Amino acid sequence: MCQKDSAVSVVDVQTRILARNDDVAAHNRHHFLERGIFAVNVMGSPGSGKTAVLEATARMFRDPHKLAALAGDLATDNDAARLRRAGLRSCAIETGQACHLDAELVHRELHHFDLDGVDYVFIENVGNLVCPAVYDLGQRANVVVLSVTEGEDKPLKYPTMFAKADLVLLTKTDLLTHLPQVDLAAILDALARVMPNPRMIAISAVSGEGILDWLDWLQACRESMLATLEVHA
Amino acid sequence: MHEYSIVQSLVDSVAAAIGDRDAVVIRVEIAIGELAGVDRGLLATAFEVFREGTVCERALLAINPIAARWACPACGGEVARNTHLRCARCQKPARMESGDEIVLQRIEMEVA
Q1: Contact between B102 and A18 using a beta-carbon 8 Å cutoff
Q2: pTM for the whole thing?
Q3: B3-67+98-111, which class in CATH?
Q4: Which of A143, A152, A164, A192 is deepest in the core (most CB within 10 A)?
């Protein structure tokens, strides 16, 4: 649509500014889907316990070689190295100055990341509760990791991140005995105000509490994904 | 601070939209949803810094804020914000009707 007004021309565009990212994300999503891989974008503050959750997942999963992780960080491959020691196939994505992963960074890594026999890919995003929520990576689900020390109103302060979450993992619950002031009901109430279908699993990477529930959630999600594929086949 | 990378994508989108037209872009209008995760002030600042030497060098940036709105996917009734995001009548989780837009809406240019 183009209307002329003397020498000024107005073009109605109405395009998503991140269309290029979304196209690459769709490509990544297809790449995961055709291999039957359930891909999870794992987000959360620095220090919320994202890497520890994945380590515990590898420890308790019956078949750790079916798990893989892409670990995004501004610098160092420390998280990827930790995950490899825990038995996960993993590699680092160094973002340099960027505060988030984008679909292109993930796409580049997927080109030389062997996903043979893998059922679950965890994309550990850069520790940040704002920027990662903006960029689709091609994941099937968003999981936000929130630790018990971060304050009950965190979801209200970062509504964009929590509005997009399919699941919140409340971590470090082993610390709750030292934190009598932390009110789990208040966290759930805050979540319900920003997350339409609030789902939270309380876990501890130290005691193992809740990890089996998290594994059940993953398995149920992957099965429902595979069922959708069969319907379309 | 991802506003710089949003501006980069915005400038690329503008360049793609005007194609090989011989034109000077004088105004760019975008919509940013309240829950899009983009700070409008930071975005405006990033645009000022970044537009130099690009197709947007002489362009003003107009940002239209879009309020977040939630509604029931079953009955269509509005679900108020800052309450539990679930329809009181149908008990269904609300759906975001608006508020996550990051959209290039309109470009004004002087045509030679």
Answers
A1: yes
A2: 0.93
A3: alpha beta
A4: A143
